[in-house]
Write a structure and sequence with these properties.
single chain, four-stranded mixed β-sheet, alpha+beta, 12 strands, GMP Synthetase, Chain A, domain 3
């Protein structure tokens, strides 16, 4: 369920939507799509129905609400903040869950009634049909392949140290992305030189949760502000990673 102590807000996306509605340029459209697919958390209104299980206990079945356009076509709504959500549900105490773009893409693969998703349907909206959502999801997965988790064999000899030139813009983009990812606790950046002379940045990720999903989101953020060297990622919970960051200050630490 949505956490009212830490309300969902998407100021960058709200501003980008305003700019797109004022001037529909390729740049403005690309900016909005990038934020929708990689950065935003959305509020989705739901209906909770108690369901009794065989053991006598009850659980809640979640039904996602749909919105319809003037032609009667149904879409999954995605609200950028509570103010936009209230335009749909009013002042009544409704239930909502927090979703990301990947959740909508997965639901649209299964949901036969919805023809796509719509961001802020009661305000400065953005409608994405099924095909567009699928293409965005595929592009996101393809871009993520440019970044890889490095699995080091014990006898692999590499040099690792401080970056010669710190990729400030790349790291800033990564920091902005992980702010909405509670599973990420700390991040370090190192520079690695392989025996064949190939160099890359390495982001060491101290995290919980689904590693593939976390790495994909970080990779997408880094790709939005590409560094001069390739960027790889490794999890903190390995001897190689722990040795690599021993005595090094993380460039990101989640506030507790």
């Amino acid at each position: 369920m949505a956490d009212m102590k830490n309300p969902v807000t998407n100021p960058q996306l709200v501003e980008a939507l305003k700019a797109l509605h004022q001037e529909k340029t390729p740049f403005n459209q690309g900016r909005v799509l990038e934020l929708v697919a990689t950065r935003a958390n959305f509020l989705a209104p739901v209906v909770l129905t108690p369901v009794e299980q065989g053991d006598g206990k009850k659980k809640a079945a979640i039904q996602f609400q749909l919105v319809t356009n003037k032609d009667g076509q149904a879409f999954l709504p995605a609200f950028t903040d509570l103010e936009e959500l209230k335009k749909f549900v009013g002042d009544k105490q409704g239930q909502s869950v927090v979703l990301r773009f990947d959740n909508y893409a997965a639901m649209l693969e299964k949901e036969s009634k919805a023809l796509g998703m719509v961001v802020n349907p009661m305000g400065l909206s953005l409608t994405l049909d099924r095909g567009t959502v699928a293409r965005l999801a595929a592009k996101k997965a393809e871009l993520a392949k440019a970044f890889s988790e490095q699995k080091m064999e014990q006898d692999t000899q590499v040099m690792i140290g401080d970056p010669v030139i710190t990729p400030e813009e790349t790291l800033e983009a990564v920091c902005q992305a992980v702010e909405s990812m509670e599973e990420v606790a700390r991040l370090w950046v190192r520079q690695m030189v392989r025996p064949d002379g190939v160099q890359s940045y390495v982001i060491v990720v101290d995290h919980s949760g689904d590693q593939n999903e976390i790495f994909q989101q970080i990779a997408q953020a880094a790709r939005s502000k590409p560094a001069k060297l390739p960027v790889d990622m490794i999890p903190y919970g390995t001897p190689f990673a722990q040795t690599a960051v021993d005595g090094v200050e993380p460039f990101y630490t989640r506030d507790v």
